[in-house]
Each structure stands twice: as structure tokens, then as C-alpha cells.
């Protein structure tokens, strides 16, 4: 199989795994972490931004196919399901640097790079959700400021998501660095 075909198959599989993890029942309503972020960020670090952004886009589109879209308006759906999910591949912009550190046995530096890339990626996604919360979901805030409401809801979900991603990276990079170095 060619290098591109391998990467495309991985892209589709990761998007499917991310979506499958999105089907875990919400245990804390809007505050539930986005478990699909874990494989997506790991994949973006493995394959780079091109495939990471594509996997994020597919993950967002899968929400439509499975009827898992909370629809208020076209712009809200575009922002929260197309843009926000696509940004999960941003960690891939650090991929070459990260993999170079792994190849040269600089595991601690690679871990710090991955943690920084993951933090930036999750932060950007949840800033998008925060903005959407202020613009589109303000009516759910009740007497609370829409800014505070969106910060609490999206900040909590983003914080939990980041914690799971950082935990996975903290375990896998020192113990299984080869997972991030594709042969093809």
C-alpha cells in the first residue's frame, strides 16, 4: 500500500474512533469531555496537520450522518461542527518537530512538545465553542451573563477534555513512542 493510502485509511479510522468515543453517554450533560479528542490529537501528532485536520473535519461531518447535531442556525452548526472539530488537527503542525525529538531519543522534550501542542489545540477548539456559546446559546444562560455561562460550560468541558488528552500523552509517549512514528 502507498504511504498516502495508508495515511488516508488511518485518517478515516481515527475519525470513526473519535466519533465512536463521542457516543459515550454524557455523564455530566454539557460538561462532558470530548473523548474523541484523544485519538485525534494523538493521530495529528503522528501524521501531521494535513491528515489531522482532515480527520477532524470527518469527525465533525460524522455528527451530521449520525444525527448528533444540536442545531440553532446554519452559522452555529458551521462554527461548532465544521470549524471546531477541524481544529483538532492543529496539533499536527508540531508533528515533524515532535517526531524529530522522538527519533533523537529526546523523550522529555517530545513529551513537552506534545503537551504544548495538545493544550493549544484544545484551547483553540474551546475558544470557538466559547464564542458560539456567547453568540448562539446565550438564551440558556438565564440570569447569568452569557460570557460567564459559556465560560463555565465550555471551560469545564475543555478542561476535562484536555486532562484526558494530557493523561494519554503522558502515558503513551514515554512507554510507546513508536506509535507516533509511522513506518509508511
UniProtKB/TrEMBL annotation:
It comes from the Bacteria. Keywords: Membrane, Transmembrane, Transmembrane helix. The chain crosses the membrane at residues 7-24, 30-45, 52-72, 78-98, 110-139, 151-174. It holds the Pfam family Thia_YuaJ. The keyword Phosphoprotein does not apply. This is Thiamine transporter.
